Amino acid sequence: MLAVILLIWQQQKLAAFFGIVTSPEQINLNNSTQIATPDLGRRHQLTYQEWVEILKQEAKVAADQRPPHLTILAGDSLSLWFPPELLPEGKTWLNQGISGETSNGLLNRLKIFDRTQPEVIFVMIGINDLIRGMSNEEILDNQRQIINYLRKTHPTAQIVVQSILPHGAEEASWKGRDKLLAVANSRIQELNQQLQSISTKKGVKYLDLYPLFTNKQGNLRREFTTDGLHLSPEGYIVWRSALQIYGEIELKSQQEEDGKRLKVKG
């Protein structure tokens, strides 16, 4: 899967360069058929609560309009900055990311999209917890609660927990570089292993993105990041490729199995 995704990255990078990447549907706060593409530039000046209010509005539109194949991105700035034009096609995407978000913050605002009816919910959270000095136990406990809440509130949705990504280590130029360097990538790998185990026990999917983004030293590859923490367009193309392949292989097969069970019960 790793080799295939990297090959697709090369192909899609060329396609994006020549301007032939098409856009998926987005949710719009107006009464259109698309869901709102956020004004990300303006969001730099928003407070956390103002951010939450905007996400509430977008989730309300999704709940009222019930767009087809609704898929939710829940997480921090890595999810937030996912370029809309690079999200996999054939789905309606609702981005519920907030810059600087922690696992506790995400847990406390999951209710925002309670009324939506997503097919899939992708969760990526944890790097800001590590930067802020939280213990692995605290992070994993929040992750368990997030999984439990989503399974209970969205019983028909497929929940996909995504691994925490590595950082650029000594090559990082992010403004919080010192705090970032205090978190070893080996610790992130260990945390991801535990997160995978929890996902398996809870009966949800786990998407291991970590190896797609690492170099030989186990750090975030230079071409996939802007500052050693956040992703470059190339990084998002790799993530997009992983979501595409995962959707076709894992999620589609699961949907088919669920459909067969319903027919047998009927």
Q: How is this fold's topology laid out?
A:
Layout: H1 2-17, E1 25-26, H2 40-43, H3 48-65, E2 70-75, H4 77-80, E3 92-97, H5 103-109, E4 120-124, H6 127-131, H7 136-153, E5 158-162, H8 177-181, H9 185-202, E6 205-207, H10 233-265
Parallel strand pairs: 1-3, 2-3, 2-4, 4-5, 5-6
Give the percentage of residues in beta strands: 5-15%
* Structural class by helix and strand composition: alpha/beta
Q: What is the string of helix and strand elements? A: HEHHEHEHEHHEHHEH
Question: How many helical stretches?
Answer: 10
CATH topology group: Rossmann fold
By DSSP, the count of extended strands is 6
Any guess at the CATH architecture? 3-Layer(aba) Sandwich
Report the helical percentage: 40-55%
Number of separate domains: 1
Mean pLDDT value: 86
**Biggest β-sheet strands, sense, barrel:** 6 strands, parallel
Oligomer: single chain
CATH superfamily (homologous) name:
SGNH hydrolase
Query: What coarse outline follows from CA principal-axis ratios?
Result: globular
| Rg result | 18 Å
Domain SGNH hydrolase-type esterase: 90-236
InterPro entries: Ester_Hydrolysis_Enzymes, SGNH_hydro, SGNH_hydro_sf
GO molecular function, one term: phosphatidylcholine lysophospholipase activity
Protein name: Lipolytic enzyme, G-D-S-L family
